[in-house]
Amino acid sequence: MVDLPTKEGTIPFNIPSIDTHCFTWYKIIGDLSSGAPPVVVLHGGPGAGHEYLLPFADLWPLYGLPVVFYDQIGCAASTHLPQTAGDKSFWQESLFIAELDNLLDTLKLRDGPGFHILGQSWGGMLGSAFAASKPRGLRRLVLASSLASKELTIKGVELLRRELPEETQKALEEAERTGDFDGPGYQEAVGVFYAKHLCLAKPFPPPELLPTLKHLSEDKTVYMTMNGPSALTSTGSLLGWTVIPRLSQIEAPTLVYNGEFDTSHEIATQPLFQYIPHVRWVTFPGASHMCHLDTPELRERIVRVVGGFLSWK
């Protein structure tokens, strides 16, 4: 990555409901003037930051596709808004759609060759909602370990919870009964779940994931307000969220993928395949939610599947 052409910067982002002067941090890998559609990468969390998705920077040297990473508002190198913690009316899908629109317009990505979207986890939820609005310039869409609705996400996670050791399930139930999500019992139980379904890299965590864990630990504003204490306990503003009624409006050819042991369970993935008109679905055997980090071999395979899809004429 050291030798790749890189540009970093910030973009002012005006949020009318608050007085804070905000900005979105971005990084471009490759040359936007190359004539190829850039790939705009939407990270998960919410609040995870872009770093764990940096392996997709390989799309530039391998396929000639520039890659645009950015940190969504409220996390990592973009403006933090701790004063909005717990404000579920503020932390809504519409805020992130507005930020993405602002990024595309400022970088002038809608014209010429247009752009692709690659959204992972929550980034895929955001990406599918954005694509359903039929945005000008969108060429192709990749939904990586994404989810069609929060209701189906919760059902899928519940199925995975039932496969955990009995003592782990009891620890989760006790924390949810008492509301103690910071205690060692709950944290250890979450760790067991994540080791089976979030990322299978050995040793864990892999280096690419360390910044994400740091972001989520140091500022919990976005994740706690939108999701809740963990992937196992949903209490935030995303409760009730769904893109299912909008999926038929997505015109861009779409690649959906997940892992065999993904927290994005197949029941939460199925509607993406069922209702998006032009779609392909790939499930990677033996893989997790962050399957591009599981093994070097799987990373290479996923980058090539994504690159091949985005480059196909």
Can you characterise this structure?
There is one protein chain. The chain has 313 residues and is of the alpha/beta class. Helices cover 35% and strands 16% of the residues. The chain has helices spanning 59-63, 93-106, 122-132, 150-161, 166-178, 184-197, 210-218, 221-226, 266-275, 296-311, and strands spanning 6-13, 22-29, 39-42, 67-71, 115-120, 138-144, 254-259, 279-284. An eight-stranded mixed beta sheet has the order 1-2-4-3-5-6-7-8, sandwiched between helices. It is globular, with a radius of gyration of 18 Å. The mean pLDDT is 96.
How are the SSEs placed, and which strands pair?
Blueprint: E1 6-13, E2 22-29, E3 39-42, H1 59-63, E4 67-71, H2 93-106, E5 115-120, H3 122-132, E6 138-144, H4 150-161, H5 166-178, H6 184-197, H7 210-218, H8 221-226, E7 254-259, H9 266-275, E8 279-284, H10 296-311
Parallel strand pairs: 3-4, 3-5, 5-6, 6-7, 7-8
Antiparallel strand pairs: 1-2, 2-4
Strand order within the widest beta sheet = 1-2-4-3-5-6-7-8
- The oligomerization state is single chain
Helix percentage range: 25-40%
Query: What is the C-alpha radius of gyration, as a whole number of Å?
Result: 18 Å
Name the overall outline: globular
Succession of helices and strands: EEEHEHEHEHHHHHEHEH
Overall average pLDDT: 96
Measure the end-to-end span. 27 Å
Beta-strand residue fraction: 15-25%
* E-strand count: 8
Largest sheet: 8 strands, mixed
Question: Which residues sit in consecutive blocks of at least 5 with pLDDT less than 50?
Answer: none
Total of helices: 10
> How would you classify the helix and strand content by structural class?
alpha/beta
